Amino acid sequence: MTPTASRDDKFSFGLWTVGYNGTDPFGGPTRPPLDVVHVVEKLAEVGAYGLTFHDDDLFAFGSTDAERQTQIERLKGALDRAAELGAKTFVMWGGREGAEYDTSKDIRAALQRYREAVNLLAEYVTDKKYDIQFAIEPKPNEPRGDIMLPTVGHALAFITTLERPEMFGLNPEFGHELMTGLNFVAAIQQLLEAGKLFHIDLNGQRGMKYDQDLAFGHADLYQSFALVDLIEHGGPNGGRSYDGPRHFDYKPSRTEDETGVWESAKANITNYLLLKERSKAFRADPEVQEALAAAKVAELSEPTLNPGEGYEQLLADRTAWEDFDAKSYFGAKGYGFVRLQQLATEHLLGAR
Amino acid sequence: MTPTASRDDKFSFGLWTVGYNGTDPFGGPTRPPLDVVHVVEKLAEVGAYGLTFHDDDLFAFGSTDAERQTQIERLKGALDRAAELGAKTFVMWGGREGAEYDTSKDIRAALQRYREAVNLLAEYVTDKKYDIQFAIEPKPNEPRGDIMLPTVGHALAFITTLERPEMFGLNPEFGHELMTGLNFVAAIQQLLEAGKLFHIDLNGQRGMKYDQDLAFGHADLYQSFALVDLIEHGGPNGGRSYDGPRHFDYKPSRTEDETGVWESAKANITNYLLLKERSKAFRADPEVQEALAAAKVAELSEPTLNPGEGYEQLLADRTAWEDFDAKSYFGAKGYGFVRLQQLATEHLLGAR
Amino acid sequence: MTPTASRDDKFSFGLWTVGYNGTDPFGGPTRPPLDVVHVVEKLAEVGAYGLTFHDDDLFAFGSTDAERQTQIERLKGALDRAAELGAKTFVMWGGREGAEYDTSKDIRAALQRYREAVNLLAEYVTDKKYDIQFAIEPKPNEPRGDIMLPTVGHALAFITTLERPEMFGLNPEFGHELMTGLNFVAAIQQLLEAGKLFHIDLNGQRGMKYDQDLAFGHADLYQSFALVDLIEHGGPNGGRSYDGPRHFDYKPSRTEDETGVWESAKANITNYLLLKERSKAFRADPEVQEALAAAKVAELSEPTLNPGEGYEQLLADRTAWEDFDAKSYFGAKGYGFVRLQQLATEHLLGAR
Amino acid sequence: MTPTASRDDKFSFGLWTVGYNGTDPFGGPTRPPLDVVHVVEKLAEVGAYGLTFHDDDLFAFGSTDAERQTQIERLKGALDRAAELGAKTFVMWGGREGAEYDTSKDIRAALQRYREAVNLLAEYVTDKKYDIQFAIEPKPNEPRGDIMLPTVGHALAFITTLERPEMFGLNPEFGHELMTGLNFVAAIQQLLEAGKLFHIDLNGQRGMKYDQDLAFGHADLYQSFALVDLIEHGGPNGGRSYDGPRHFDYKPSRTEDETGVWESAKANITNYLLLKERSKAFRADPEVQEALAAAKVAELSEPTLNPGEGYEQLLADRTAWEDFDAKSYFGAKGYGFVRLQQLATEHLLGAR
What is the pTM (predicted TM-score) of this model? Predict the structure, then answer.
């Protein structure tokens, strides 16, 4: 009854997600480690088409060359059944970049060093003719007091100051942005407008607290719905707005055994696909279309000035200021935004 | 297609909710005032059975006796068609009780004065043989820096120190508790366990920020679902747990005209009823029942000791400490909490 | 120049605080373990008079009886120089009590089991005639989604439902309460008013996020000042309000070596003593006393009714309602709360 | 004893700050309006050198041309004693730009319209040869659900997409950034690094909640200290980093009469000057200089590569990867960040 994933859905998982063994600040592991070949097979079963990993996910920090090679060969073997090895997007997450005390780090100098480093990386990749792009992943805090480039906005601004800005974009994470109470969907729209959504981390987060990494769709269904609606149907703009992997970066709860791990992995996919269905029905509903028109959502896409016009035309329009009749707005026809939200609610709940 | 309310649903609204004229800290009213008789008729249309009001909702502060009487007569006339005038629950919300600066108010003395006041009220009501109970409404802050009795817990603790604690309970508000990031449903469970849920304010709130008063169901669908599930079906305990009014305390957005006001009022009711349907189906689903059993949710209701036993029996059980085998728990059968959450999600989305 | 601690200051530390090795969710230890005897000697040097520990701080979970005995003897040897072993307050922190998903735990049943457990403990301790009391430590979340009894208020309310409430109090932690944005000082005042401040955990926390455990005084100096003012000088009420240990529950940053560990331990003590000095000067300043009087802070301690009077006297006072002149309050003499806050600021900054 | 302001300190106030009459969402005004000439005189007395105002502060929306002219003449008369009328920085705050519901506004289109509008303004100002620059003021929310360009980062990124980016900078507000829990000082450093700190709004905010607008220095003394240290002494970089007005955007509490209004205005200035003194002493303290050196704060300003070098030199350095000895870092010399924070604390408290 629940929908099934295809390769075209481009669902991918971090090796560290299903591989999380349950360790947390107050307790040790609750699950044994999973072998990478097994992980690849099981993720393929639940509907994933891709896999990502940290620098130390596949082999521990300090492994010998031989140990590394063995793990790479084993992974390659597993992937050969489904895909090929080869990363095009390198994500940079500055979890240790930041400060717990304001006097202990000069953030201006830190930004300069960060810039020096990523400019150098871009130069190297360009020289080597590698087909690689970089995606910065913002996060506001944890475990350090305050991480640099804490939100989508700060990272986006930083990228514009680089030597090769075209090679850099963002890897925004749902939960990270919600840790500040900011609207993730609005941030993604600003990223799309700037052409900088290079990759995306999907998960769940219940409010402003430590990074929870719940499964996608297991918290804040409204923002999850609006996000899928934006990615798959372009939101109010229409059109598919992002073509990269739908990457899940979550952690199965400590309370789960291996069966629970795979069920939690599948939950991410099921919820994404259910929200995609709901979004499709929402866009197709004539009553929604009528409500969108009444709310003048599409009108915002029209430039205020006609082609060729300048501010003189605006100045000549006395209705906007000199003859502006504020009273006529009081009690005038409303926008019906609440009705639109209610239509979205009813579609989200599968009640239409 | 969406469900319809009956009197048994006990939906009520504050007069100030649909009567909100759109004024906010940065702008004046966007809608003209509504007449109270008209409000009563329209609320009955959308499915309400009751009405509540502030001390100055029905007539302005400083009205003459004649003005008050007129308004009371007009309201009575309207209500006579549906119900009778007569409040049994008086809500006390301490919006001006608190402090912006820690040195400017002695909270211990303030709690003593608050206690003196409510003890006096209870004595007066008892002497007069009025059929009245009091419900304290907690709120953490706004507009003052910090309000006294900021959460359900603080108010519940205060009540136990009164002279007539049986006359006092709480009127928790969904949005107020979410302003602190606390779990509202857990708070309601503690209130129910203490027998102190006297009234409830339902609305919506998107995270820790100013008091938003969105329509019920227009934010945090998970807590909204779990709350309706708890109220209507007793949550995991089963049974209907609260029999008072389902009272909506929300504000229609500034962007709405009068049509939008009534649509927003109806949205509260529709969402409550949809969540009630979803909760009913969730509880009836055999797969959910099997998952609840696997997660051992009901086992928690069983006392640890058998009747008549004391701690000696526990001490005699060496498996709990001396012979405890921690290793046997590592990698053992999980609880399947994520599966349960996923089943709840699919029911919430109407996908089962 | 900075003040020095004496035994009368009753400063104590958890063994796990200075013993924290720097492990966090994203990295392993940065410091080697410290021997318990060495810890006791160094803490005595910086000014501590007491030591606390978790069940597994002194010896690892799963130690043999012999290993335990050795560690206890070594600790006893170290303490014999300064004090004797013997805990009177047992703290209970429910870090694993709670839920990540609302459907997976019946909080009412959980509260009943928790009550059964602590009632049993109290019965056992009473039967054994142990000189022990229990202190519940609230925390809102982390690592579980939502912990039960999340704030001072919730725990205080729970205690009133126990069989032997007199044996139970609270161990509030500065940082835990700030994770919800609530006012810690107001919570302590409610606890003091209820006679339930059994122990206290002092540290620092910068806003609503994961549990930071910074040193006391390294975040939110206003609440730190108001707290010390309340504990040492009774706040506006006057008098020393709490006589138990001033217990620091903090974590030295990962970036520190052992020298930094002892400097961070000392920072807690120095800051407490500096704030105590500031508070003493604040209370002694004639301008502050005059501002407190102008702000009518002490008047709140006076009962509204005279001894022997009832509500009839209030009803007879027509100035409170029938003849109330609201207009006379507009533009009337203010309370000068901002002036009081500014005086506190200048004392805090050592500028008076 | 407290320091006195001079014109060189460049303190300015919004007309709406001391003019706030106490109205809040739950109550009407508590103070009568102040005449603009009186305001100018009193602000000059407490140490201000400048005045700012909203479009409707000086004369109400809908005033006649004659009414406007009268008010302008009166203000000019008052200012002629101290300065001249003439604004060089226009602040744009998008308080009504945003959305309460994700489906009701296409943020991409909204950003395009916002860009069209400000490009047009810049063109007009350029054509007219006005000596004017624009400063965007970010705010995350309130009263609308989510405001566009919610943080310093988002606004900074937006500016880089304009036709005349050199005419646009930011007017960050202390309290607005703290509403998201982000670090304001780090944001200012990113702005300074980008050359975009055009103006600044100073006030106080206690955590993530509604916009409080407390007096500067009446909340979060650590960030206030680090901010003044950065502005006046360049933070770790040294040098004065910002030369524009120190503009206070705060609200006197409802509880204050006119005397309290002027005392609260003065509190902003006193606190700024006290923190400036503390910061100067902190920078001059030899122990601080030694701790900064030990913490290697200044080293971060040195480029990683020598002039003329490229990544080949880095690749040739085998100690950074192939021969990297992770073990040598465990337990090695620490950075002493906590010591630095403690030195800052003691300077802040005036204890050194």
Answer: 0.96
